[in-house]
């Protein structure tokens, strides 16, 4: 309860900010986009990660306002990046299930796109695999509405849930994100690499884009390339960056 109050006042005081982690094409290592990641710098200077405060934001309902702020912030950054000459850059934004289920979610998305003048075709929303498995009929319809705004959809943490093939086919998703745990296991156990391999294969068979997350070293990148994984993000390429550092990092990429 104390953290909930601290989060509410911290949010109002502007203590939340976004970090942007570049996403790259594995064939060339060139960045094509970034994922916006939420951070909380508290009054006393501590940095708190989303894993700790998103559940509280969801439980308290604060996530609806925070999520709208995150979306608008990320869309505004996308517009700045395009204006700075990175005109095909994409922006991925995480969406909580509480936020997504809110009856006004699609209206909120449309207004945010209109107000910021962000081009929807360069915007991706990330929903988790556990969300993608729930309430099939409602979800299919809502995703269809979201897709009509022009944004694309990625399934985050893919491989941790149990999406059936037929269910996945009914959802209008565009991309699967291989969960970091399967990337970590790729150099070790055969089973770890087989899950990553399965997701890459699944993406190919269903005509979906695939991105590996949490890529930390060259060995992992090499194996992913050999498995035919097209895209990646992780510390090997870059940590999440401030907007200024992202622009500088993109400049240094040449
Ligand atoms: O990189 P990081 O440790 O910040 O991410 C931890 C988790 O928090 C990830 O699962 C990520 O998807 C989630 N996350 C990061 N930013 C946001 C956000 O803006 N909204 C929501 N709902 N989840 C986020
Ligand atoms: O949305 P998602 O849960 O996938 O968020 C990605 C999380 O993983 C964020 O917390 C981000 O900071 C973190 N992350 C990004 N790249 C790496 C990496 O290479 N290694 C590890 N351990 N974490 C990473
Ligand atoms: Mn994510
Ligand atoms: Na993830």
Automatic annotation (TrEMBL):
Swiss-Prot/TrEMBL keywords: Phosphoprotein
Superkingdom of the source species: Bacteria
GO process terms (BP): phosphorelay signal transduction system
GO MF annotations, alphabetized: cyclic-guanylate-specific phosphodiesterase activity
Segments forming domain EAL: 1-254
Name this protein carries in UniProt: EAL domain-containing protein
Organism ancestry: Bacteria, Pseudomonadati, Pseudomonadota, Betaproteobacteria, Burkholderiales
Residue span relative to the full protein: 514 to 767 of 772
């Amino acid at each position: 309860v104390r953290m909930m109050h601290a989060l509410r006042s911290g949010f109002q005081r502007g203590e939340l900010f976004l970090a942007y982690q570049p996403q790259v094409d594995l064939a060339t290592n060139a960045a094509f986009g970034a994922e916006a990641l939420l951070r909380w710098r508290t009054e006393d200077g501590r940095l708190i990660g989303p894993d700790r405060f998103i559940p509280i934001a969801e439980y308290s309902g604060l996530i609806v306002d925070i999520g709208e702020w995150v979306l608008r912030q990320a869309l505004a950054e996308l517009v700045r990046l395009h204006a700075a000459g990175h005109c095909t850059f994409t922006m991925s934004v995480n969406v909580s299930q509480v936020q997504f289920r809110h009856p006004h979610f699609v209206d909120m998305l449309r207004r945010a796109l209109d107000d910021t003048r962000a081009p929807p075709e360069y915007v991706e929303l990330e929903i988790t695999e556990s969300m993608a498995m729930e309430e099939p009929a409602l979800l299919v319809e809502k995703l269809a509405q979201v897709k009509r705004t022009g944004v694309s959809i990625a399934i985050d943490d893919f491989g941790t849930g149990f999406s059936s093939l037929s269910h996945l086919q009914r959802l209008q998703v565009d991309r699967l994100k291989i969960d970091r745990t399967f990337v970590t296991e790729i150099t070790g156990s055969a089973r770890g690499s087989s899950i990553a391999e399965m997701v890459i294969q699944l993406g190919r068979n269903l005509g979906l884009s695939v991105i590996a997350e949490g890529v930390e070293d060259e060995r992992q990148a090499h194996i992913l390339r050999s498995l035919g994984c097209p895209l990646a993000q992780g510390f090997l390429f870059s940590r999440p960056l401030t907007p200024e550092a992202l622009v500088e990092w993109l400049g240094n990429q040449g």
